[in-house]
Amino acid sequence: MSKTASDPDPRTALAALAAARGDSLAALSAMLGRNPAYLQQYVRRGSPRVLGERDRRLLSAYLGVSEGVLGAPADRMAAFRIRKLDVVASAGPGAQVDGEIVLGTDTLDPGLARRLGLKDGQAAIIRVRGTSMEPGLFDGDHIVVDTADRTPRSKGGLYVIRIEDAVMVKRVVLSGRTLVATSDNRAAGRVPDGPIVVIGRVVWQMREPR
Fold it and tell me: Using an 8 Å Cβ cutoff, are 169 and 162 in contact?
């Protein structure tokens, strides 16, 4: 998940990302408040040599990539450590678990971690099992869970929850003073009855190749 030596250089990456979105470099330059030729000169002539911190931050947020992809210096890219839990967040009727076992840690790009609002020690990676949250989440996907966010709101969101001993990922909304959990797949079975304990909000997903 962090930048590797095989990744494209920042200029190539920026040009490819802009083309994929159908955005011109001139339009992106205007978004930054720069002259229309600013990013074209950066990509084609190497001037400026590196993007400024503000420009890089704005572009990474707009394009949905880490600042490392756009050339953030290594000393600003210390890896964000995140726990990998031995808990299968079922997208079906629920995985029975005795507890949460830490398998180890993985890393997230720190720029991405900042954009997601994650805090050290308050995030985890969990694997999804089942089909009840398709097409948003598929069996085998890995999700990043913000365990500091355990308060669903009236507009709802994706949360990892526990009902008795079953851990699952569901869409949870606050209806009055009651938490209501539902599946996205209309063909899915009914969510089990019982008090809902929120483990954390799903803030990112990593899809397995198919």
Answer: no
CA distance 109 to 3: 8
Grade residue 105 by pLDDT with cuts at 50, 70 and 90: low
Residues 134-191 pLDDT 10s? 999 998 888 999 999 999 988 889 999 999 888 899 999 999 889 999 999 999 888 9
Distant-in-sequence, close-in-space partners of 157: CB < 8 Å, separation ≥ 6: 171, 172, 201, 202
Report d(CA 210, CA 207) in Å as an integer: 9
Q: Which residue has the tokens 């669903």?
A: 152
The 3-state secondary structure of the chain reads: CCCCCCCCCHHHHHHHHHHHHCCCHHHHHHHCCCCCCHHHHHHHHCCCCCCCHHHHHHHHHHHCCCHHHHCCCHHHCCCEEEEEEEEEEECCCCEECCCCCEEEEEEECHHHHHHHCCCCCCEEEEEEECCCCCCCCCCCCEEEEECCCCCCCCCCEEEEEEECCEEEEEEEEEECCEEEEECCCCCCCCCCCCCEEEEEEEEEEECCCC
